[in-house]
Amino acid sequence: MSPVPGLGWRASIAGSRAEPFSGGSENCPEPACTLGSWGLLFPLSGFLGGYMLINFVACQLFALLAAFWFRIYLGPSHASSAVRHAFATLFGIYFAVFCFGWYSIHLFVLVMMNYGIMNMASIPNIHRYSFVVAMGYLTLCHISRIYIFHYGILTTDFSGPLMIITQKITTLACQLHDGIGRQAEELTAEQNRLAVKTRPSLLEYLSYLLNFMSIIAGPCSNYKDYIAFIEGRHVHMKLLEVNWKQKGYDRLPDPSPTGAVMYKLCITLVSLILFLTLTKNFPMAYIIDNEFLDKTPFLSRLGYLYVVTQAAKPKYYFAWTLGKSGYIIYFCR
């Protein structure tokens, strides 16, 4: 099962063309009609192999442009922290709804449930309760999407961003427990650096979990690093760690993300080409075909399984690298 939303479809067993998973009518290929703005981009789905992939790519590319806009017009010198939090959250919510439609309600339900836990639970137990609720809700969603709604193991949906949010919720809960519930001498140097000393406000909490550059495919950042970015302290903090004066600078430099972003985008393009090429020739759906299961020798099945799992890897490289390239623009300020 892919943890990256928007990249899965069922390949055609009879032919070589990759097709969206079956179900529903011609005008509304269920469950596509519940997966956000599928109709807007559906005409392009044949080119990349599925409407969910189109939605994902569209959101990530728009996030790149939004990151540039955010960097230029909503930098720390142009906007307050509250404004930056608000815009990052609203963009993230829009992307979630665009990609997943009403299914995105699962993301918001989990976020708000754990916000209640963070504010009402005792500090000694906050990390335990947060983990149980977040992981439990994620598990129920996985079970329901496969065994109740029968979307199949080869499809992807809201469970991808739900996994990202689960990571962030548990990370923040543990760091809050370290910052309030434990003594400094009990922590490692890294735990001390990341420990959160006060409970986040609702806006800070929503911004951290739902910001537009990480809601779809990550990455999962630490809460204190994210807040330092919003407040404009993150680059200075890193430069101070490397003794920038000894590097010959007379003032703190303003690093440019251009080179790093172009490098990441090249990797993204290569990964996408490899993924589309390999999965067309080695469809993963073939491993559950009755003829393959009944008539193919065991060693041949094992060999094909190895090949298709390797062919699926560029999908993850594509998604994560594309998300990381936007994150570089977003954070490099």
From TrEMBL:
Species the sequence originates in: Strix occidentalis caurina
InterPro entries per record: LPLAT_7/PORCN-like, MBOAT_fam
GO biological process: lipid modification
PANTHER family: LYSOPHOSPHOLIPID ACYLTRANSFERASE 1, PORCUPINE
Membrane topology: Multi-pass membrane protein
A GO CC term attached to the entry: endoplasmic reticulum membrane
GO molecular function, one term: acyltransferase activity
This protein's name: Membrane bound O-acyltransferase domain containing 1
Pfam family, one: MBOAT
Major localization class: endoplasmic reticulum
Membrane-spanning segments: 48-74, 86-109, 129-148, 202-219, 260-278
Keyword terms: Acyltransferase, Endoplasmic reticulum, Membrane, Transferase, Transmembrane, Transmembrane helix
UniProt-annotated location(s): Endoplasmic reticulum membrane
